[in-house]
Write a structure and sequence with these properties.
The complex is a heterodimer of chains A (218) and B (476).
Chain A (H helix, E strand, L loop, with lengths): L1 H13 L23 H14 L2 E5 L5 H11 L4 E3 L5 H8 L6 E3 L9 H6 L3 E5 L2 E3 L4 E4 L15 E6 L4 E2 L2 H7 L10 E5 L4 E2 L7 E2 L6 E6 L1
Parallel strand pairs in A: 1-12, 2-3, 4-7, 5-8, 7-12
Antiparallel strand pairs in A: 5-6, 6-9, 10-11
Chain B lengths: L3 H10 L2 H20 L4 H20 L1 H14 L3 E5 L2 H14 L4 E4 L3 H6 L1 H6 L4 E4 L2 H8 L16 H11 L9 H18 L2 E4 L3 E3 L4 E6 L3 H7 L3 E7 L3 E2 L5 H13 L6 E5 L13 E7 L3 H4 L16 H4 L2 H6 L10 H12 L17 H5 L6 H13 L21 H14 L2 H13 L10 H4 L11 H7 L6
Parallel strand pairs in B: 1-10, 2-3, 2-4, 4-7, 5-8, 7-10
Antiparallel strand pairs in B: 5-6, 6-9
Classes of the chains: A alpha/beta (218), B alpha/beta (476).
């Protein structure tokens, strides 16, 4: 195996390219890096997300709990997977009586895989940011909000502060300093529920991941 | 001249229904792409940038691969190198055996198709389940993908409905696309839950952070790389890019060129296996870097542009030849224009794929739509020359493609030599062309292969020189 590594790298080094200085491009700016005002940015985000069948609620810090309550009622959810250890999660747990049974992802996945797969109606997570240009939510999974929360339950509700919506992915990476601050094991950019056009190029939703994506802005 | 490729083509051209269906779907893909390119100037700028990113990455390939490897290893990803597909398969098998795993779930990956990992593992008693909807359909039909982005592009919904009903008699026959997709979802859930190993491809490897980036819409790639205790990613060595900053423009260009989407539903950036605090994610992440001829291709300053490809499939969707013959006729993992230049370079001119540079009209549509501006027609011409080159004549350009010159036929070479001589001797040339115009009615109607599907050519009544003289233009 080390032989393969050496052979491949040696062959590449023997290859013609004597010049390994980086190739420069004059167009260093992201050409689609349109800089929008705050309201336009939020509108753009909302429109883009709705275009890919995402339910977006334009709420506020005061109203988001009511909106979430409405979302649960409208779907007659029996339970909600949400961490009590996040800022928003703590606020949901503080009003525990208003919501369906609250579950916490408190153990490793191996300890509760069958339940996670069959007995969780919906999961609520926070977002690390949003991207207006593409209608995207950035997820930064951690110990409290593990990766499978946004992947296995059929419904995923994301809570996102409007102040964290950026113009582009490039801007989000720069402002949030993705390179220097250590990234988590897995970063996810989420733009709509799971979908496929593999049959006759006709779009269908909810193929393997969540069937519904709901974003509540505050 | 009945080669494997030619009989594939003859067969494909008889499938009228498949051809009509293929054209409809390809047109849909083209319309989606067109709809996503509203601002021409901005798009060209984006292409400039991505072209430079890929050129830079391939130019610095060995350095970037080492940088990527050390960062990935620091993050806990186990990096394996494979010179051949057999080595890559053996690495996968080794990991499977080490975990006593007899089954794996697979996300869509063209490199895994290149490896033929399904058949290899099957022969060792290990089952691979394709989980991408299109790949699953193709697997049920016991076929190969007919397109790199839309594997089951050649299948109509009725055929897919019959296929699924045939394999799962418990499910009622249904042609509704949503119902079909939900049936597959239901079947796959238990598999994802139980799978000991997940295998996926990779779209980009970021050298400065050691990140693996996967792009998808269905979520099966995330499930394969998140739920099983072991994740194996396979990719070609050319997929590396230098910086995290290079990723946004490439993602933007890739998804728009492929399907016209501004972004896919999921962009999955894998940095490490499960960390002590994490509650899920695989305990082990393995990355297999496959060479299989790529480092050889990198040795030629013209051919190496083949490695710039980001596998969007736009050239395939715009190719008049693909449109007629479909993906299977190429007989290779990657079809279409990019396949016609990549596969012969990998397999050599003596393989069946060696004939693929002929599968082109040189219309140039592929180069026009290629997001990273690979000069596909120029490379096709170069490969046509490579296949008939005289090996000893040019010591300073050593052939990088195996079997170079193997297509050279002495008679054909002699005819071209005579033709070249005639063209450089005006007296002879004028007399010959004049003779052809005078014999225009006596040329045979049957010219073998040429006239099997075409009318015989008929020279004009007078030569061009004669015409010009009658028009009083006597200078050339």
């Amino acid at each position: 195996m080390n032989d393969a590594r050496k052979t491949i790298l040696d062959r590449l080094r023997l290859a013609h390219c004597p010049d390994s200085t980086p190739v420069k491009c004059d167009d260093q700016n992201d050409p689609v890096d349109s800089v929008l005002g705050s309201d336009e940015r939020i509108d753009c985000f909302i429109n883009r997300m709705r275009a890919v069948r995402t339910e977006v609620h334009d709420a506020s810090h005061d109203s988001w709990l009511d909106i979430l309550h409405g979302v649960c009622q409208a779907r007659s959810l029996n339970n909600l997977l949400v961490s009590p250890h996040t800022r928003w999660g703590a606020m949901i747990y503080a009003e525990i009586r208003r919501f369906p049974a609250l579950k916490d992802y408190s153990q490793t996945i191996e300890d509760w895989k069958p339940e996670l797969f069959t007995a969780v109606d919906a999961a609520v997570t926070g977002a690390y940011g949003g991207i207006a240009e593409t209608g995207t939510v950035i997820l930064w999974p951690d110990a409290h909000e593990p990766r499978a929360m946004s992947l296995v339950p059929p419904i995923h509700v994301v809570l996102l502060e409007k102040s964290r919506i950026y113009n582009s992915l490039t801007e989000a990476m720069r402002i949030q300093n993705w390179t220097l601050t250590g990234m988590p094991s897995n970063v996810i950019l989420l733009s709509g529920p799971s979908k496929s056009a593999d049959i006759e190029q006709t779009m269908t939703y909810g193929v393997h991941g969540p069937k519904e994506l709901i974003v509540i802005l505050m | 001249m009945s080669t494997e490729f030619r009989s594939n083509v003859a067969h494909a051209l008889k499938q009228d229904a498949v051809q009509t269906h293929l054209r409809t779907v390809v047109d849909r893909l083209r319309a989606h792409r067109q709809g996503a390119l509203s601002d021409d100037a901005a798009f060209e700028q984006l292409r400039n940038r991505c072209e430079a990113i890929r050129a830079d990455a391939i130019r610095r390939l060995p350095d970037l691969l080492e940088q990527f490897e050390s960062n990935a290893q620091r993050n806990g990803i186990q990096v394996h190198w494979a010179e051949t597909t057999l080595q890559a398969n053996q690495i996968v098998l080794g990991i499977m055996q080490q975990h006593r795993a007899t089954f794996l779930v697979k996300g869509k990956s063209m490199v895994s198709e290149e490896m033929g990992v399904n058949a290899f593992l099957q022969s060792h008693g290990i089952d691979c389940l394709e989980t991408d909807l299109g790949e699953f359909i193709v697997q049920l039909a016991d076929e190969k993908p007919a397109h790199i982005i839309v594997p089951a592009i050649h299948k109509k919904r009725r055929e897919i409905a019959r296929l699924i009903h045939g394999h799962f008699p418990g499910l009622p026959y249904n042609e509704d696309i949503e119902t079909l997709a939900q049936s597959v979802r239901h079947f796959m859930r238990d598999k994802f839950r139980a799978a000991p190993v997940g295998l996926t491809g990779v779209n980009f490897m970021v050298a400065e952070t050691g990140t693996l980036c996967l792009v998808e819409n269905e979520g099966n790639g995330r499930l394969c790389s998140t739920l099983p205790p072991v994740h194996i990613a396979v990719t070609g060595i050319e997929k590396v890019i230098a910086r995290l900053d290079d990723l946004p423009p490439l993602l933007n260009l890739l998804t728009r060129s492929a399907t016209g989407q501004p972004i896919t539903a999921y962009v999955n950036m894998i940095n490490s296996p499960r960390r002590p605090d994490d509650k899920d994610g695989p305990d082990e992440v393995h990355l297999i870097l496959l060479d299989n001829g790529r480092s050889r291709i990198a040795g030629d300053p013209e051919l190496l542009e083949t490695l710039h490809c980001i596998r969007c499939g736009a050239c395939i969707n715009h190719c008049p030849v693909y449109r007629q013959i479909g993906g299977h006729a190429y007989g290779t993992v990657i079809p279409g224009p990019i396949g016609a230049i990549l596969e012969p370079q990998k397999q050599g001119f003596n393989a069946a794929a060696g004939e693929l540079p002929q599968a082109s009209t040189l219309c140039g549509a592929c180069a026009e739509v290629c997001p990273v501006r690979i000069p596909i027609p120029a490379i096709i011409n170069r490969l046509r020359w490579e296949s008939v080159r005289k090996n000893q004549q040019s010591q300073n350009s050593r052939p990088v493609v195996p079997g170079a010159g193997s297509g050279r036929k002495p008679l054909e070479a002699l005819i071209w030599k005579i033709w070249a001589w005639c063209c450089t001797h005006p007296g002879i040339y004028n007399r010959l062309t004049k003779l052809a115009t005078r014999l225009r009615n006596r040329l045979p109607a049957d010219m073998g292969v040429w006239t099997a599907v075409r009318k015989a050519p008929k020279p004009a009544q007078a030569t061009l020189h004669e015409h010009l003289r009658t028009m009083n233009i006597d200078h050339e």
